[in-house]
Specification:
This protein is 67% helix and 0% strand. By secondary structure, the chain is mainly α. Helix 2 runs parallel beside helix 4, helix 4 (56-66) runs antiparallel to helix 5 (71-84) and helix 7 (105-117) runs antiparallel to helix 8 (129-145). The model is unreliable at 301-311 and 331-336 (pLDDT under 50).
Length: 336
């Protein structure tokens, strides 16, 4: 029920009756926050905290209203929460995150290290391994972000047995390319649809270019690399379109199935003009073929002959036009 205007009237009436009610100021702040009026919400939270500075609930919710608007206040409230309840892990992590958001990564690292100093040597217990491992990965990412690459690597090796999820570490910066190669291949075996893992692997084998330009020799090596990976992970949708043939082999079967995420999977390629042109040309050719030649949909998409999922002409045209319109919205296709 949309009765927010009534809620505003009631909370103002409450403040009129008792201007020193921290509950009314807190609810007033919650209402403003729900309407994304963050500056007004911050004022309400501050008034509530002046009246009841140690109220856990107000402290817990107040930084949410100050996100992107009052980072200094965020740090302050997180510090108050930690002071009131230093035995709660989330208060330590929240204080560290506040400093990180406030562009003080080094202080965030100090806080996490101080928290680790409060723990027993055999921590964490089995039921908290995942959460603790994520905290350690966050600390390692902070070290890397602050430029302490060697410290981050040493920390990763030291705490590896406490980390549940395999990390994605920048071995390239340490010139540990062989180790990085092994790690990214291991990560790909767990999740072959992660584009970052492919990018990391390319960097480790010396086949990554920020501007997307490659020499003929590098293109041949990339082609060989992705052909081998394609054989290993046939079900993966992490596409690297090198030419129209590769794009054709990938797009046709998924168009036949009517996979809704096809063009979202292709969207990273829109940033590369030559690849976007290949996609546009291919889709236009397929659409033209369907419209003019009358070739049955299942024969056009020959990789799946005998098991078409979209056997209606109009449905096929919809998928073509949907892909073209999405490419145009991304600002990559010039025609349509």
């Amino acid at each position: 029920m949309d009765r927010k205007s009534e809620a505003y009237e009631l909370v103002r009436l409450g403040l009129k009756n008792d201007l020193k009610s921290h509950v009314c100021w807190h609810v007033y702040g919650l209402l403003y926050r729900s309407d994304r009026e963050y500056r007004e919400a911050i004022k309400c939270y501050r008034n509530a905290l002046k009246i009841d500075p140690d109220n856990i609930e107000i402290l817990r919710t107040s930084p949410l209203a100050g996100t992107n608007a009052d980072l200094a206040g965020f740090v302050e409230t997180r510090q108050q929460l930690l002071t009131l309840k230093p035995n709660h892990r989330m208060n330590w992590i929240g204080f560290a995150v506040a400093h990180h958001l406030n562009s003080n990564g080094a202080k965030a690292i100090e806080i996490l290290e101080a928290y680790e100093g409060t723990l027993e040597d055999d921590y964490p217990p089995e039921n908290e391994r995942c959460e603790h491992g994520e905290m350690l990965l966050y600390k390692i990412s902070l070290l890397e972000e602050c430029g302490f690459i060697q410290r981050a690597y040493e920390e990763l090796l030291k705490k590896e047995f406490k980390i549940v999820r395999a990390p994605c570490f920048s071995f390239v910066k340490l010139d540990c390319l062989e180790e990085g190669d092994k790690l990214y291949r291991a990560l790909l075996s767990m999740n072959p649809d992660n584009y970052r893992y492919y990018e990391g692997l390319q960097k480790c084998v010396g086949l990554f270019s920020e501007n997307g330009l490659y020499s003929p020799d590098e293109i041949d090596r990339l082609d060989a690399l992705y052909k081998s990976l394609g054989q290993e992970y046939r079900w993966s949708s992490a596409v690297k379109v090198k030419n129209s043939e590769a794009a054709d082999n990938y797009i046709r079967p998924l168009l036949t199935k009517g996979v809704p995420s096809l063009f979202s999977d292709l969207s990273p390629l829109y940033d590369h003009p030559n690849k976007a042109d290949i996609l546009e040309q291919l889709i236009l050719e397929l659409e033209h073929s369907v419209r003019t030649t009358g070739i049955p949909w299942e024969l056009l998409c020959s990789p799946l002959v005998g098991s078409p999922y979209l056997d209606d002409f109009s449905e096929g045209i919809i998928w073509f036009e949907g892909g073209l319109s999405q490419g145009m919205e991304e600002g990559s296709y010039g025609g349509g």
